Amino acid sequence: MIATVDIGNTNVTVGFFADSRLVGVFKVLTSGWGEPVKVEALIKDKARPFLKKEACREVYACSVVPQANKHLRSICRSIFKTDCKIAGEDFCVPLMNKYRIPSQVGQDRLVNAYAALKLYGKGLVVVDFGTAITFDVVSRGAEYLGGLIAPGLRLMQESLNNKTALLPFVELARPIELIGRDTASSIRAGIVFGAASLCDGIIERLLKKECRGYKIIVTGGDALLIKPHSRYLKVVEEDLILKGLAMIAASQKISKKL
Ligand SMILES: Nc1ncnc2c1ncn2[C@@H]1O[C@H](COP(=O)(O)OP(=O)(O)O)[C@@H](O)[C@H]1O
Ligand SMILES: CC(C)(COP(=O)(O)O)[C@@H](O)C(=O)NCCC(=O)O
Ligand SMILES: [K+]
Questions:
Q1: Any binding-site annotation on 108?
Q2: Which segments cross the bilayer (predicted)?
Q3: Which CATH number is correct for 2-91, 3.30.2310.20, 3.40.50.2300, 3.30.420.40, 3.30.420.10?
Q4: Which of 70, 71, 72 is nearest to 59 (CA)?
Q5: Which of 64, 93, 133 for mutating ligand 2's site (highest number of atoms within 8 Å of CB)?
Q6: ipTM of the complex, rounded to two decimals
Q7: Confidence of residue 201 (pLDDT cuts 50, 70, 90)
Q8: Per-residue b/e over 55-77, b at no fewer than 16 CB within 10 Å?
Q9: Does the C-beta of 64 come closer than 6 Å to ligand 2?
Q10: Do 98 and 123 form a contact (C-beta atoms < 8 A)?
Q11: Any residues with CB less than 8 A from the CB of 68 and at least 6 apart, and which?
């Protein structure tokens, strides 16, 4: 069995793969890194049922929270009894990276692009509704071209609440009407329809120009909330980063054998 870890700005997501199949996933909040001992206890607890069945041979990770990396390394040794390999530090995502400064791009975006390329073939856009909404383009020549970054749904919720006197924090849910007639439904409609329109608008621009005929793949914590309101989001890949990490682990094993 191998373990994969995705440290995003909201969640740490852990996935276990047996024979390339995802057999289990759990999440803990990223904000806990201030108290790594607590994060370790949480991960240990949630990983226990999987580790009882089978030991972990390898851990592949991807992080966009650099201050978490050293804790991740020690947590891996103590829970999984093996060193973890972190994207960008211990291995490179095997993709031609055309970002102006290649090291500047988030490793999560590269892993998403790699995973989608392996699953769906060249010429695609990955949309990830995480803390940020990211759009990542893989060309017909299988190169990572870059993309776009916009604020995610939680950031929209929090900034409306934090930067105004009267707006409360409202839990997001499927909006029931376009024209909100109370504060909570106005905020829900604004954020959910707004994010769907932002997404469709950007995809339309991409499809008209550089990305004519490209496939669109969507992932991330808020993907299912937005999908019903979008024209272009049809193909959902949950846990795309974890799948990408598992595919990279498998490819490294093959290249070692060659
Ligand atoms: N407990 C929570 N705290 C914050 N956001 C949450 C929580 N549960 C679900 N979410 C939603 O998940 C989104 C983040 O998705 P995720 O893909 O896990 O992000 P990341 O990969 O950036 O950590 C947020 O925008 C928010 O709407
Ligand atoms: C854009 C991101 C914040 C997205 O992170 P996430 O929503 O997955 O937490 C992350 O990929 C990042 O910090 N990128 C570095 C800058 C860049 O990609 O250009
Ligand atoms: K994201």
A1: yes
A2: none
A3: 3.30.420.40
A4: 72
A5: 64
A6: 0.97
A7: very high
A8: ebebbbbbbbbeebbebbbebbe
A9: yes
A10: no
A11: 7, 12, 30, 33
Element (H, E) at 13: strand 11-18
Count helices and strands (H / E) in the chain. Answer: 7, 11
Using an 8 Å Cβ cutoff, are 15 and 22 in contact?
Answer: yes
Domains 2-91 and 96-243 share a fold: yes
Q: Which CATH architecture has domain 96-243?
A: 2-Layer Sandwich (3.30)
pLDDT in tens, 65-97: 999 999 999 999 999 999 999 999 999 999 999
DSSP strands (E only) in 152-239:
215-219, 235-236
Say which of 45, 108, 136, 182 is annotated catalytic.
108
How much distance in Å is there from the Cα of 221 to the middle of ligand 1? 5
Q: Are 41 and 97 in contact (CB under 8 A)?
A: no
Say yes or no: CB of residue 147 within 6 Å of ligand 2. Answer: no
Contact between 14 and 5 under an 8 Å Cβ cutoff? The reply is: yes
Q: Is 120 annotated as a binding residue?
A: no
Check if 222 is active-site.
no
